[in-house]
Amino acid sequence: MENLWRIATGQDPNREDYEGVEFWSEPERSGWLTKQGEYISTWRRRWFVLKRGKLLWFKDPAAAGDRGSTPRGVISVGDCLTVKGADDAVNKPFAFELSTGRYTMYFLADNEKAKEEWINSIGRSIVQHSRSVTDSEVLDYDHSR
Prior knowledge:
Helix content is 23%, strand content 28%. It is α+β, with helices and mostly antiparallel strands.
């Protein structure tokens, strides 16, 4: 029933969001995190996989290990600006936030070590996959005078 609700409300991610990402094989990082819901602010424990600039989440590790699985959600980390600790923001231990210019998502790790490892892994992925400035976007002040 939940799957029908997700399809009807358009909550399943677009296949193009994770096309070509073999999430079931050798992720950069994977593990349990608790994620705050986007529409209803409840906290749900999900299995997360970070691979090739995508942070995907699944109901459990078995779903993430199946090629035919559809993730419950996908974030392109290249669109993210910051990842940082957020214990004070949500009044919960081991919290961190992932922010784009439009929204902020909150997560809870199981302990401080896991929190720091996720922040570091996502941070590295943001740097590797962020859209870099091209030469045509750089304003040359010396030649524009």
